[in-house]
Each structure stands twice: as structure tokens, then as C-alpha cells.
UniProtKB/TrEMBL annotation:
<dbReference type="GO" id="GO:0047631">
    <property type="term" value="F:ADP-ribose diphosphatase activity"/>
</dbReference>
<dbReference type="InterPro" id="IPR000086">
    <property type="entry name" value="NUDIX_hydrolase_dom"/>
</dbReference>
<dbReference type="GO" id="GO:0019693">
    <property type="term" value="P:ribose phosphate metabolic process"/>
</dbReference>
<dbReference type="InterPro" id="IPR015797">
    <property type="entry name" value="NUDIX_hydrolase-like_dom_sf"/>
</dbReference>
<dbReference type="GO" id="GO:0006753">
    <property type="term" value="P:nucleoside phosphate metabolic process"/>
</dbReference>
<protein>
    <submittedName>
        <fullName>ADP-ribose diphosphatase</fullName>
        <ecNumber>3.6.1.13</ecNumber>
    </submittedName>
</protein>
<dbReference type="Pfam" id="PF00293">
    <property type="entry name" value="NUDIX"/>
</dbReference>
<dbReference type="GO" id="GO:0005829">
    <property type="term" value="C:cytosol"/>
</dbReference>
<feature type="domain" description="Nudix hydrolase">
    <location>
        <begin position="61"/>
        <end position="193"/>
    </location>
</feature>
<keyword id="KW-0378">Hydrolase</keyword>
Length: 204
């Protein structure tokens, strides 16, 4: 196997060495802007490879987003049903949305807003669980996942986005697991939410 490396214990020093990018970095030679939209920008970079060769990289730039894991008073997961055009089908997802201008340094603000807009619920507190890159091979989009605690129904919630058509669902763990098997739940953030829920349940 090309560039096969012997397995090593990942100590702090080994981890730092492993993440050293000097021998892997691709230097940008030029960039061609292809598209600038409401949500994403697209570009093609010509890059210099570590071995001296060149290649092209198709890139998507995104402001980032949030996903919220929230449970109602009966310990059911709050999910929203919506049509996803790239998939050409309806799926169930945890509440989520992109970071708007002015929220970039505070994704928790985005999480609070999206939870209320999409579900009509508000959290007393939000705990940051993790942040993940969704498709690092071509996109810089990072998703921040929060666990909403002390969730309560709001009498007059923030309005949904005008171009969103959503329906709120409350699923038990067993129902969510079945929905995942049936591919009604098929996106990474919601699968992560269910696995997180399973770990919480095992810890009780």
C-alpha cells in the first residue's frame, strides 16, 4: 500500500507530529471564482502538490451552521420534517440552520434562534457538544452541535423562514432508531444525535 505507515500510539507529541502539514500542504497557485450565492460560494483552485506537481481543487465555502439536540417534557426528540431538494425527498432532521451575518462568533445565538423558529420551543441553556466538518474534501462548512436543556414551548415563537415548509415531530428513541433504519433519518447530524441519545440512555 502506498505511503503505508506503521501504527503508533497517539501521544500528544505523536499527535502534533501527525498533524504537521509541511509535507502534505497544497500551495494555492491561483483561484477562479465560479459562483457567489446566498448560502455558498464556489471556486476552483490550482494548487502545487507536495511532490511538485499541480492539480485543481473544486471548493465550496459556507458560513457554517448549527444543529440542536432537544427533548420535550416526555423525553422525546424534537425533529422537523422537510423536503430536501438535493435528495428529492422528505427526511426527518434535528432542528438546524446556517449562521447568519453577525452570529459568526456566537453560534450558540444561532442555535437558540433556529430551535425557536423551527420547533416553537426555547431552551433555558445550550451546551456545546462538538463541531464537525461535514465534507472536508471540498467544503469548509463546519456544523456546531448543541444539546438544549430545559426546553419549553413558547407562546409566540420566532417566525420560520419564508421559504421553509416544516412539520414538527416528537419521537421516542425506539421510533427514531426505526426511522433511521427506514432511511427517514439519513443525515449525519441527526444520526449523531441518535447515537448521542443512545449513550445518554446507557448512562442512566
Amino acid at each position: 500500500m502506498k505511503n503505508e505507515k506503521k501504527a503508533v500510539m497517539i501521544t500528544k507529541k505523536a499527535g502534533e507530529d501527525m498533524l504537521n502539514n509541511e509535507q502534505f500542504e497544497e500551495k494555492t497557485i491561483s483561484r477562479k471564482e465560479i459562483y457567489s450565492g446566498k448560502i455558498i460560494d464556489v471556486a476552483v483552485d490550482e494548487v502545487r502538490l507536495p511532490d511538485g506537481g499541480t492539480s485543481k481543487r473544486e471548493l465550496v465555502f459556507h458560513p457554517g451552521g448549527v444543529g440542536i439536540i432537544a427533548f420535550d417534557e416526555q423525553d422525546r426528540l424534537l425533529l422537523v420534517k422537510q423536503f430536501r431538494k438535493p435528495l428529492e425527498k422528505v427526511i426527518l432532521e434535528i432542528p438546524a440552520g446556517k449562521i447568519d451575518p453577525g452570529e459568526g462568533q456566537n453560534p450558540e445565538m444561532t442555535a437558540a434562534r433556529e430551535l425557536e423558529e423551527e420547533t416553537g420551543y426555547r431552551a433555558k441553556s445550550l451546551s456545546h457538544l462538538t463541531s464537525m466538518y461535514l465534507s472536508p474534501g471540498f467544503a469548509n462548512e463546519v456544523l456546531h452541535i448543541y444539546h438544549a436543556q430545559g426546553v419549553e414551548k413558547v407562546e409566540n415563537p420566532l417566525a420560520q423562514d419564508e421559504d421553509e415548509v416544516l412539520e414538527l415531530y416528537h419521537l421516542t428513541l425506539e421510533e427514531a432508531q426505526q426511522a433511521m433504519k427506514d432511511q427517514l433519518i439519513c443525515d449525519a447530524k441527526t444520526i449523531y444525535a441518535i447515537q448521542y441519545w443512545e449513550l445518554l440512555t446507557k448512562g442512566k
